[in-house]
Amino acid sequence: MLQPVPVAHKHISDYASIVGRTLVDDIRERAEALKGKRVLHVSATAFGGGVSEILYTLIPLMIDVGLDCEWHVIYGREEFFNATKVMHNALQGNPQDLTEQQWETWREYNMINARELSDGWDVCIIHDPQPAAMASLVGEKARHWVWRCHIDLSTPNPFTLERLLPYLDPYPAAVFHMPQYIPAGLDGRAHIVPPAIDPLAPKNMAFSSEDAVYNCEQFGIDVERPLMCQVSRFDPWKDPLGVIDAYRIVKQQLPDVQLALVGSMATDDPEGWDYFNATVAHADGDPDIHILNNLNNVGAIEVNAFQSHCDVAIQKSTREGFGLTVAEAIWKARPFIGGDVGGIPLQISDGETGFLVSTVEQCAERSLEILHDPALGKRLGRAGKESVRQRFLTPRLLRDWLALFQQIDV
Question: In the chain, which end has fewer C-beta atoms inside a 10 angstrom radius, N or C?
Answer without folding.
Answer: N
